[in-house]
Amino acid sequence: MPKTLQIVGALAALAVPTCLLASRAYRSYLFRTYTATRDLLSLGKPRAGGKLSATAVICGGSLAGLMTARVCSDHFERVIVVEPEAWALSDAAREGPLTTGTRTVETERGVSYTTATHKRTRVYQYLGYHVYQAFLTLFLRALFPTFDKTVEERRLLIAPCDYNLHIVGRRMLYPYKEYETRGETLPPALFTTRRSLEALLRTLVKAACPHIEYIHGTATDLKLSTDGRRVTAVSVRTDSATVQDLQCDMVVDCTGNTQAGLKLLARAIPTASDELQKLRVSYDPKMYYSGIEYPLPQNFEEELAQIEIPSDNKAGRMDTGRHKHYFTWGTNPSKDHRTLFITRWEGGVYVGAGGWNSETPLNLQEMREYARAIKGDRPVPEYVFKILDLLEPVANEGEVFEAKINSCSRIFYERAHAILPNNFIAHGDSVMRLNPRFGEGITKSSVGATTLDGTLRSFSPFNANFGRTFLRRLADRSEGLWDAAKLTDYGAETTIPAKGETRNDGAFARWYGSVLNRLVAKDAEVASTFYHVGMFLAPSALLSTPTVLGKVLLEALFPTPA
Ligand SMILES: Cc1cc2nc3c(=O)[nH]c(=O)nc-3n(C[C@H](O)[C@H](O)[C@H](O)COP(=O)(O)OP(=O)(O)OC[C@H]3O[C@@H](n4cnc5c(N)ncnc54)[C@H](O)[C@@H]3O)c2cc1C
């Protein structure tokens, strides 16, 4: 054989494994950078070399704050949580009762409804049902060995994470086959209200880490070192209106929607106040939503089992004894503003509806009319109305939660490492308040806490690059959520965009997304990637690989009929 041919042959033989290795390395990079799945592997394990003789102060004792406190207890000898809401620190906030009664609300349009009363006044969405993704369950299991037992004791529902999502009417394919061939089923998620999850987390943290200190007070100021590079103390105004300085080696802003960290920083570094304010971007999606919590009607499970709900599992129909989420309608704002879902919670059935500048149905009849009014490529399946009919016996017992979300915001802390103290970090809604239409806020908080754990395993909070590294990693792992939610919202004509942006921004992403939404109803491979990205288990970059791009182009050229 001529020598040139031999060389070409050898190069060709090398090219295949090289490409494979490069592709594997690229995939690994994507998972490491854009998801927290790698950090999950060490979550909950003792810190190498023992705990730091140091103090972490966490401002805010809600979901992000509690997750952070649990993670910090593996790294710091002293962990302090500062929370202004006295009730949140009480036994009742862990063990219940979580609501105090009900009251009647008279609306301007003359429809009245019953809603629950409660003492968690600082969290607007306390009564709202929340959905969660599979990553959250993995996070909780890694941190709390008693998680499953406590969930069972509280009769909270945990089930395969199948939201039976219909996007503009087309049912997404769920990757059952992939799991069934391994003898498994879809990864599990919790199906419970936000208030029950918060109580569960409080109990788990208290049991796992009795040494965590809770201070009833409000973080009001940060004290900085003379060179301004470190926070040395957090000033806290306590119940008796006195101010106490808590010495700290790391401070975490978990103050949610208050986003107190930005205000505290602006006061502590007045020369950078303008620059800090510029880090915050907000827009108004005018997202209006209502949900009704029904008790479980008698014989509901038996009667539901008679209703055929299609599924991608082996049986081809949903096993309603095992599955807890019955239906979700997702939309594309260019088609319609309405979304709808029906799900279980430990106390009964929850029906939620809403969208951009949406009507808010306040009783069962209005829910039916809302569902009938939904527009899409295909109509809302008839079984949805049959499920609603099963609620008729408890129609007058529903408790309503009505919400208006007029501000979504993100603080780009990762752009400000030249100004920020090295040991200041933030996560949860204090950094990014998403449109809750996608129900991602809590899992995002668990990704933040996991990212903190991973960062603390390679950087001490005394390292000059600590805060910068955490904030960069967090941004990489969450900015896709912000972009996806915001750019989808810009497709609704009622959305008021962020300063300096227009509703045309993201037109290509919206187009790509709308074609992808059709694909996930017919292509099992793309649907599986979409599912795992949605579960926070895979990077969103996998939805724009050359293979997926090719499929999107084909679907765009030859659209699947409705
Ligand atoms: C209507 C609605 C529906 C939603 N649905 C979903 C859903 O389905 N799924 C989902 O995952 N997410 C959902 N979310 C989002 C989710 O509720 C939030 O992402 C989550 O509550 C964020 O938790 P957090 O701990 O960051 O903040 P929060 O829960 O807001 O808590 C902030 C805490 O900080 C405390 N605090 C405030 N100021 C200070 C201060 N100065 N010092 C000390 N402490 C302070 C407060 O008292 C509070 O306890 C929804 C949100 C809304 C509005």
UniProtKB/TrEMBL annotation:
UniProt-listed InterPro entries: FAD/NAD-bd_sf
Protein name (Swiss-Prot/TrEMBL): FAD/NAD(P)-binding domain-containing protein
Source species, domain of life: Eukaryota
